[in-house]
Task: structure prediction
Amino acid sequence: MAASSRESSFSSCTSINDADDEGVRGTCEDASLCKRFAVSIGYWNDPYIEHLVRQSKERKAPEISRGYFARVHGVSQLMKAFLQKTQCHCQILNLGAGMDTTFWKLKDEGLLPSKYFEVDFPMIVTRKLHTIKSKPLLFRPIMELQQEDPIHMDGHTLDSKRFAIIGADLRDLSELEEKLKKCNMNTQLPTLLIAECVLVYMTPEQSANLLKWASSSFDTAMFINYEQVNMDDRFGQIMIENLRRRQCDLAGVETCKSLESQKERLLLNGWETACAVNMMELYSGLPRAEVSRIESLEFLDEMELLEQLMRHYCLCWATRGGQELGLKEITC
Result:
């Protein structure tokens, strides 16, 4: 079945046990290549990804590119709503960021928060920092915001006035918090945390601890989570089996049973509100002109597979505090 070779392309990067590193790094690479391919044929604009990610030697399936379009659109809508509510007087923590380019795009749009943080597996961070140092298009925008202060940069960390990249294990919360504070994370600022296909690679206990840490560390916060859902059915089992064959175990899949289980996890770990939609629901609600534009880019002869894939991924968001900012009103 087509799903057995395609659904893993929706995955992203995170930090897990050494024995599982190779499998997860493979999904990170795959996700980056899929985004680069989608950008190259016009699904959305990203002038920076080509400097961080090589072009794939093979075409990606149209349903994968449409899925990434919906994902990028949904996360961006929620993030920009948060930035608008806080008037950019906030910070963003992108957990498991991989080769993400959001910092540069937000700078171009005049929407940078007070500080933007990325956290990921140290090996991925080392690779990203090496690329940034060697590409003026990526390094110059960081320097432009720096004024006279020096940039701190070593093998696993970049710390500048408005941007930090940190190599850390998301399961080791004391280490994570220590490294974030060294890079001047401000717990008093409204904070947006983003996790895309990250929590699912942790055990339920580990992801619950991360969610509790996030909800308790900031007085005003929002959490965006993109990952699998409806994983109890046959299609979900095929997704799990395919990833397992690639030595990549979904350790947290039991929390991905339904939209309700996704929301419940957030509410049980200190978040005051929680919303969730599957990606087919989100895709169906996109502006028709934009949908027509992307559907004209490539012919898709398996609409049923697209719908199946999108019904097995979801976008969730939760808030804590921020009543005066109207965070509870945010929707995608």
Notes: Residues 1-9, 11-16 have pLDDT under 50 and may be disordered.
